[in-house]
Amino acid sequence: MQTKIHLDEEEMPRRWYNIQADLPSPLDPPLNPKTGQPASPGDLSAIFPMELIRQEMSTDRYIDIPEEVVDILRLWRPSPLFRARRLEQFLKTPAKIYYKYEGVSPAGSHKPNTAVPQAYYNREAGIERLATETGAGQWGSALAFATSHFEMDCTVYMVRSSYEQKPYRKMMMQVWGAECHPSPTTLTVSGRAVLEKDPNTPGSLGIAISEAVEDAATHANTNYALGSVLNHVCLHQTVIGLEAREQLASVDEYPDTVIACVGGGSNFGGMAFPFAGDKLTGKHPDVEIIGVEPAACPTLTKGLYAYDYGDVAGLTPIMKMFTLGHDFVPPAIHAGGLRYHGDSPLVSKLVKDGVARAVSVYQNEVFDAAQIFARTEGIIPAPEAAHAIRTAIDVALECRRTGEAKTILFNNTGHGHFDLTSYEAYYAGNLPDYDYPEDLIRDALSRLPKVD
Predict the structure, then answer these.
(1) Is the preceding omega at residue 78 within 30 degrees of 0, hence cis?
(2) Which long-range contacts (CB under 8 A, 24 or more apart) does 419-423 make?
């Protein structure tokens, strides 16, 4: 019985899929934070190269992948698709469970899928250094890997709580030649402002983004690179879903349910957008698409669909998305990188329009699922990926109850080899399940920018 489904390198996607082409109505445009008017390409040119700006705004259904990018992606792509037979047997479910494994990349997650093209387009535009933020460290290490291939410098602002919990991610970045600082820092105006208010802050992605954007905007040789949320980032990640769809087709399968974790949205978009496109165009109108987030940072399940800044200092464009408020600071939980206050405008629109739905899960549920997966399938998953595993298990158990033989597909977005302190906390009973208080969410939402 086949366990792994591979594609040849010649079968790698040569084009990214742009879901903007198939949306029933266009996205609400990002707004200039100073004027409140729709952002123009010129507004973004201070921190992004023009080709990425073009991709951000494009409604072309497909965008070609440069051959130099393809050559680097070949180091690990196409990634394998696995049939989780041992997990199925453990759950005694009639469902078939498949997972795409992105942990085979050099950085151990899906993040290099966009880090490589972002570094490429910046190098082509004459940029010498990239500045970025990172939560659990996957994105920072991926960008460090990518910039090393293009002989560029890289500066990473890592959320302080993760910097302290995950020292090996910082070391990976240093091996690939990047600088890594615990955010907030004293190196930027926005970082110093946060530290003045709360010297003991655990940090947040919104704070780290402010620092990285400020760094890029104040250095002529530097641009900003974002690991999630934006349209072009989700676009680059669609190689995941495009490959998975071809791999399933090779064994005459198509998923009934597609599942991925959601933080900013790139992992979810990468897996789900090709299938959401099939749903929107009527090819597979009944496919169920589920995004999974931590209960401690419930952006899609408890947030407001509104215009908000992407960072704490209000330096980024104002985007229409599900948000918990740009100054929301989540607890220092072990959910990995799933702690962003907002979500991708594209992911948010799919959820708002009912094309996809969202669920939230607790830390201990997540690590229960991670342990089951590790002991059946052998891979120790990253905490982020374990959110998708938790929901895949829940769907499979519902199939056991009903007798329905669904085909379930989820994205195993990376391995957990550098997240073992989180597993240690789980085994020590130090992972409290956390519902973020509704009054604190309402308070953060009360400070959304005023937009006409």
Answers:
(1) yes
(2) 419/136, 419/166, 419/334, 419/336, 419/382, 419/383, 420/380, 421/165, 421/166, 421/334, 422/165, 422/334, 422/336, 422/367, 422/383, 423/367, 423/370, 423/380
Tokens of 96: 């078939």
pTM: 0.95
CB distance 66 to 52 below 8 Å: no
Q: How far apart are CA 155 and CA 215, in angstroms?
A: 9
Q: Are 398 and 256 in contact (CB under 8 A)?
A: no
Q: Cβ atoms within 10 A of the Cβ of 439, count?
A: 8
Tokens standing for residue 205: 């992605």
Side-chain-side CA neighbours of residue 68 (13 Å) = 11
Q: Is 26 exposed, middle or buried (0-12, 13-18, 19+ CB in 10 A)?
A: exposed
Burial class of residue 74 (count of CB atoms within 10 Å of its CB; 0-12, 13-18, 19+):
exposed
Domains and CATH numbers, the chain: 16-22+46-65+111-230 (3.40.50.1100), 78-108+232-445 (3.40.50.1100)
**Cα–Cα distance for residue pair 79/109, rounded to 1 Å:** 11
Q: What is the pLDDT of residues 166-202, one digit of tens each?
A: 888 999 999 999 999 999 999 999 999 999 999 999 8
Q: Classify 320 as helix, strand or coil.
A: strand
What is the tens place of the pLDDT at every residue in 48-59?
Answer: 999 999 999 999
Contact 209, 194 (CB under 8 A): no
Three state DSSP letters for 142-158: HHHHHHHHCCCEEEEEE
Give the model's confidence band at 292: pLDDT under 50 very low, under 70 low, under 90 confident, else very high: very high
Residue 46: how many other CB atoms lie within 10 Å: 13
Q: How far is CA 203 from the centre of its chain?
A: 18
- As a whole number, mean pLDDT of residues 276-292 equals 98
